[in-house]
Amino acid sequence: MCGENILEMKKIVKIFPGVKALDQVDFDARRGEVHCLIGANGAGKSTLMKVLSGAYTEDEGEIYFDNKLLKSHSTEKRRKEGIAVIYQELSLFNELTVGENVYINNYPRTGLGAVDWKKVYSMTQELADGLNIRIDAKAKVSSLNMGQRQLTEIMKALACNAKLIVMDEPSSTLSKSEFEILVKVIHDLKEKGITIIYISHHLEELFVVGDRITVLRDGKFVICKNVAGLTEDSLVEYMTGITICQIENEEAEVHKVSDEVVLELKDMCNYKVSDVNLKLHKGEVLGLYGLVGAGRTEILQSIFGLKPVLQGEIRIHGEKVNFKSSQEAVQHKIGLAPESRKAQGLVLLLPVWENITMVSLPKFKKKAKINYQTINEECRDYVKKLNIKTPSIQTVAGSLSGGNQQKVILAKWLMKDCDILLLDEPTQGIDVVAKEEVYKLIREMTGMGKSIIMVSSELQELLRVSDNIHVIYDGKQVMETNKANFNADQIMHASVIGRCTK
Amino acid sequence: MKEKMNFNEIIRKYNLAILLVVFILISAILSPNFLTLGNFLNLLQQASIPGIVAIGMTLVILLGGIDLSVGSVLAFSGMIASIIVEKMNGSGASILLGCLAGIAVGTAMGLLTGVLIARFNLPDFIASLAMMEIGRGAALLTTSGNPVFGLGDAFHILGGGFLFGRVAISGLFWIILTAIFAFMLKYSIFGRSLFAIGGNREAAMLSGIKTKRNYALTYMISGLLSGFAGVLTASWMSTGQPTAGNGYELDAIAASVIGGASLSGGIGSIGGTFGGVFLLQIITNIFNLVGLPSYYQRIAKGAIIIFALLLNQFVSKGKGGKE
């Protein structure tokens, strides 16, 4: 099945100002192989793939593709050589049809030079048939589901005669059944002798689709092994350099939750949820689990004063409140790390320090002007304490990795000395190492007497960090369970069918 | 590689300064009268009124907004001030009252625009376009389109007077206001909030910043500065002119952008805008000194705007980035 090497990247070095993003990295791929590439964020996966696609020029090293040394550094030329990259955020035109998207780079022409539409659609259909997928060539991309869009991207690559396809996090937006179709298509592509480089944070997938796995860490090559000889635990070890049992030992220490109720919702209703009852105690992590769109975020929004409470009440430290705006919530020492870091959590073009001080800036006012010296000192403190990896506090937030951006947001609320923190999907899209750091931070914060409500779609992490979990289904609270009685199956069940099965 | 980055950074940072130096050199070669103290003081006087308007515009642009009404607000404020001064025969009290009334009218108009945008969610462009029409119409309506003369010598000092016989008072106002607002942007909570709101309005709101209030306040400041510029214009010309300030909004936007401001918000500086206004004024100045028709000036201004932005983009491109 797997033939000789189609790709050999030898001793690739890529240096950005201040960072060696790739340090003598070797990578190869065989014809008809699915080669998985993994590593924490910032490990150099994307950089390596950008070097391959021609978006970046390597500083040292050589790339051989199909027995030829690649010299030109343009994405256009690399694509013609047969290297196609499907990025995580797909690059399709929503208002065009599948056929138009597939052949957008090389429309078939009639004798007169006009686009041959008949051929566009018949050829697209042939491609779809060849992959055994059902997709209407004339459908607009905007009407497709995420899985079909992914397949459209694959067809687009094939239309350019790709010999090697890089898939960057292809499964992140796919449902389970869509993923199964993708797995089948990948299998068919292998049969055709096409090579796939598969990048994913979801380690379990690699064992389903992959033949070999290469791990990068801090810009360096770690290992390249057959899937058969690896386990998820060993992969995490290679990625982080820490062994799993070390992580779990830290977990062992149990922390105590006090009886003091800091936040209480009584039969709270807003436009999306109804009759929510919950009590958040000092030092507690309360997990909200449920499907996307079940109303978890909306509960946080009402607590934070963004969506009016229509019925019932919210009490903070026993006092009934009715916030009209986020400012009032902030004054009551409530903080929110919103679901979308980039769109809601940070001002990406402002420096790290300014994002950290965004809430607590007034406290740095001295004699009617902002005192930058104390800002610098305190921000450096937080960067150190939270282990935020940034060249300096003057660096713009947009250039940090996802995990570090999340830490900047947490630093922002820590600096304000919030009592209650609302975390909405705090670990979404961040790598294993950064996730561990966020969990550790959450534990430290509860240790300091802060209380946390955490919304997450990853049950495993809620089971790990929460003291209590509430399950939300279609705007209603359907289950409540505490740490001693956590049962993953029951929680999962309740979130899907909307009632508690005991 | 590393040296090249530094070179790019220098250009990016001092982009405007380099342009200014280049144009000053070209102008000095073209006209022996250019590089004289007298001419520079002249420039200061000519640039002062558009410069004051541009300060307000830069604040609005920092928010990610745009204020097309500045020219009309300037005219209406100037008319109100002139009419009061003229009716009260240019007495000291009338000057004070006229100035205050003019500034108050401008402030009110700016606040109205700001409230329409912040509270009622009208698009910036449309709300300020409407105010531009209303302001111009109101200015013309006050005297049925006629200028107001006979404002007296005392009133002329404010916008047309000189300190030590050569330093324009209006120019000093411009410099002082530039310093005040540059300080405000760097050292006040309100000033920093403009960068946050312009950079990401939702994130700013979720951080507890009073986005709506500050938004309306910024437009109010723009109106206040335009109102003040209107009073200065009437004083400088010794005439209340309902057509004054025509096209100032575009000059102010151009100056802000040349000064490094981004129309999508979050980026910009008062110092940069000062330089931008100066650069545009130098172009007008050198064309006058050389004696070319004013039509060329406008073509040159357009070319400079394009060139300044291209240079900015060109140097930003080499940026690269990780992952």
Please characterize this protein's 3D structure:
- The complex is a heterodimer of chains A (502) and B (323).
- Chain A has a domain at 260-497: Rossmann fold (3-Layer(aba) Sandwich).
- Chain A is 35% helix and 25% strand.
- Chain A has helices at 45-53, 75-81, 98-102, 117-130, 146-159, 176-191, 203-209, 232-240, 244-252, 296-303, 326-331, 341-345, 352-356, 372-385, 402-415, 432-447, 459-465, 488-497; strands at 5-16, 19-30, 34-38, 60-65, 68-69, 83-86, 164-168, 195-199, 212-217, 220-226, 261-269, 276-281, 285-290, 311-316, 319-321, 334-337, 365-366, 369-370, 420-424, 451-456, 468-473, 476-482.
- In chain A, the strands form five sheets. A six-stranded mixed β-sheet of chain A has the order 6-7-8-3-9-10, sandwiched between helices.
- Chain B contains 13 helices and two strands.
- Residues 1-5 and 318-323 of chain B have low confidence and may be disordered.
- In chain B, a hairpin with a 3-residue loop joins strand 1 (162-163) and strand 2.
- The relative contact order of chain B is 0.20.
- The A-B interface holds A 15-17, 19, 21, 41-42, 44, 46-47, 56, 59, 304, 306, 326-327, 329-331, 336, 338, 343-350, 354, 358-359, 361-362, 365, 368-370, 399, 401, 412 and B 1-2, 5, 183, 186-189, 192-193, 195-196, 199-200, 202-210, 266-267, 320-323.
- Chain B: The chain crosses the membrane at residues 12-31, 51-84, 96-118, 163-185, 215-237, 257-283, 295-315.
- Chain B: This is Ribose transport system permease protein.
- Chain B: GO terms for molecular function: transmembrane transporter activity.
